């Protein structure tokens, strides 16, 4: 007669599995954050390369009195891109059915964001740039709403971005109409 196997306790197996899986999961989470930061700042870098001398172009435009100085854009976008990346990261960390639509919207808004700078500065297509930024504004609003269903902190991180894009859309329209 074969020997009967000794029963294992569920507690030790569960705790060993969850402890062993915690380190790779945490590492993967940080790698995801780094990837999203690289993606967002990559969009910024690509825009900077595609535009050439955006500072001179902006300075040469007939701007409304409420237009910000050119030096302000770099610091504002640096902070916003970091917030966009962290918002996406927070969503990736939450399981559930709302995560996928939020991440798709996050990608769409980043793509529209990437298009605006070359349209406006490199191509001088102020009307197409306005269309793009209007779509971007809608995409950021949709992204924030979808993110709120997954992680409220992610949605809150997108609020300054939404406000800045709204302001930038008004500025784009004013520049298109006067130049």
Topology:
Elements: H1 10-51, H2 54-60, H3 73-92, H4 99-122, H5 126-150, H6 152-178
Helix pairs in contact: 1-3, 1-4, 3-4, 3-6, 4-5, 5-6
Describe the structure in brief:
By secondary structure, the chain is mainly alpha-helical. 81% of the residues lie in helices and 0% in strands.
Walkthrough of the structure:
The chain is mostly helical. It contains 6 helices and no strands. Helix content is 81%, strand content 0%. Helix 1 runs parallel beside helix 4 (99-122) and helix 3 (73-92) runs antiparallel to helix 6. It starts with 9 loop residues before the first helix and ends with a helix. Mean pLDDT is 90; it is low at 5-20.
How much helix, percentage-wise, in residues?
over 70%
| Gap between N and C termini | 94 Å
What is the subunit organization of this protein? single chain
User: What is the makeup of the main sheet?
Assistant: none
What's the tally of helices?
6
Q: What is the H/E string? A: HHHHHH
Q: What would the keywords be for this entry?
A:
single chain; 179 residues; mainly alpha; 6 helices; 81% helix; 0% strand; elongated
């Amino acid at each position: 007669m074969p020997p009967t196997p000794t029963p294992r306790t569920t507690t030790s197996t569960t705790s060993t599995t969850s402890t062993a899986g915690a380190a790779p999961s945490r590492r993967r989470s940080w790698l995801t954050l780094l990837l999203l930061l690289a993606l967002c700042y990559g969009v910024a870098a690509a825009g900077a390369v595609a535009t050439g001398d955006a500072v001179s172009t902006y300075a040469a435009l007939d701007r409304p009195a409420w237009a910000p100085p050119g030096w302000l854009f770099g610091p504002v976008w640096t902070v916003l891109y970091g917030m966009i990346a962290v918002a996406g990261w927070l969503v990736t960390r939450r399981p559930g059915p709302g995560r996928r639509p939020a991440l798709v919207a996050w990608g769409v808004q980043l793509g529209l964001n990437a298009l605006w700078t070359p349209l406006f500065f490199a191509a001088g297509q102020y009307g197409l740039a306005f269309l793009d930024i209007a779509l971007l504004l809608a995409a950021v609003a949709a992204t924030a709403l979808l993110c709120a269903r997954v992680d409220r902190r992610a949605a809150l991180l997108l609020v300054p971005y939404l406000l800045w894009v709204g302001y930038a859309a008004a500025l784009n329209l004013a520049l298109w109409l006067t130049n």
